[in-house]
Batch of 2 targets.
Target 1
Amino acid sequence: MTDTAAQTERTLVLVKPDAVERGLTGEILRRVEAKGYRLVAAELRTADDALLAAHYAEHEGKPFYAPLVDFMRSGPVLAVVAEGQRVIEGFRALAGTTDPTGAAPGTIRGDLGRDWGLAVQQNLVHGSDSPESAAREIGLWFPGL
Ligand code: UDP
């Protein structure tokens, strides 16, 4: 099973600090690989303010921005690049909707996440939402890849 090179796409997946803290990295990567996507790069790191400001630039000024950045630098994140045909759309389907309370059972957020009564939705994972976002985000987290 190899993808046609011209159709292969890449996405940035972040296993967020809540998922790392809860020991869910293996379960999340298992789901990505079981779907048939290939892992191209992975690194456990604690993100700094500059990286998070660039990553979440589109959300600057929103009420959840400061709690989101605080949460994302509260512990290590597993940054992953996954590859496969339509992986951007496919990983977002695996992840489920942003709010984990209403995310469909069968999805990462639906099966493993919930509302913890916090100012930010701790929803376990991030996945790029378009080819342009994927290229930008992969460049931020894995310069030179
Ligand atoms: N978020 C939040 N409250 C909101 C919207 C978003 O706490 O009302 C957080 C949540 O962790 C989300 C992240 O901000 O994953 C980025 O939001 P986006 O709309 O890009 O959601 P995603 O693409 O991650 O589902």
Note: The chain has seven helices and four strands.
Target 2
Amino acid sequence: MSRTVLMLPGDGIGPEIVAEAEKVLHRINDSFELGLSFESGLVGGAAIDETGEPLPNETLERARKVDAILLGAVGGPKWDKLEMAKRPEKGLLGLRSNLELFANLRPAILYPQLASASSLKPEVVSGLDIMIVRELTGGIYFGQPRGIRELEGGERQGFNTYVYSESEIRRIGRVAFEAARQRKGRLCSVDKANVLEVTVLWREIMDELAGEYPDVELSHMYVDNAAMQLVRAPKQFDVIVTGNMFGDILSDEAAMLTGSIGMLPSASLNSEKQGMYEPCHGSAPDIAGQGIANPLATILSGAMMLRYSLGEEEAAKAIEAAVSKVLDQGLRTADIMSEGARQVSTREMGEAVLAAL
Ligand code: NAD
Ligand code: IPM
Ligand code: MN
């Protein structure tokens, strides 16, 4: 059985970090005889420059056929003035919605070697292992109507719509309860049910699902408190489930607990477990082209791909072990650099992971 992985490097540091993850995946493919074949395609600003579209049809059609996708990042100042529908980010959002990748898993795990790279005290973050389950194809990101309209008198008004249907809430809820069941059995649903009706319904559906998962302990938290608790006492969380926008924000916050956003991988899955894998960070225009970006989030996203879409748990573990070994060796990209460690470039970090495999 031949399985295909589509690589979409995108923009900014995207091509730099994907190149390192690609080397690692090629090596794993050979050593574990996985029989994977690799293709690459255009998305985001890179696609706009070539074809005029952030998500060319060819990319979308290929994305539909492959078993998994590894994406770098999209966006950058070059395309920031384009109208919303033509921006690089639409390429990413279009892949998510067309492939119905509604379940976004963002694991924030602190590698013990990086305890001093976190901006929080080591005792607050040591042993940290949180799974954020973010709804990815609904909520305010996709709700209609949306736009900028002119009011009487000529003033303009921007508007978006925050909507979730019961079935959308139920399917992401199930993913989160299942995840909690496989972990420590605690699920915290994050909402704004004191203000927003859409999240009153969210809370109701989560409570209803809890009846099906008596082994999981469900709690609820308002998003403002959750943001505070994440930096006060992050280890109280096991699995967090939340909507699209709150999940976007809380996962960047959680990333910092692990030392750097350059360490946080992600999986975006549909109900067939087809998946797109990407680091949680963006195209980092401020450091693009300098060869200093941290490729580990992308390499670890490759491990998630092996685990969730390709069913290759051993190969996934091998990559994670190699990353840990490289950190043991004291190698650090600039974003996770600390005293006594050796600073390495993007490529050197990728090579070190290869050597550790
Ligand atoms: P960003 O995540 O690109 O960068 C935020 C900060 O983190 C920057 O200082 C950057 O240098 C640093 N950083 C990010 N990744 C890093 C890495 N691997 N190693 C070391 N440092 C890293 O967020 P931003 O600056 O808000 O956005 C830049 C562009 O990326 C925007 O166009 C945005 O829309 C886009 N974006 C894309 C994605 C994606 O493709 N999934 C995600 C977030 C943002
Ligand atoms: C992310 C990014 C995207 C999001 C943007 C680039 C559309 O921030 O993957 O976290 O908001 O989902
Ligand atoms: Mn984000």
Note: Residues 169 and 202 are 6 Å apart (CA to CA).
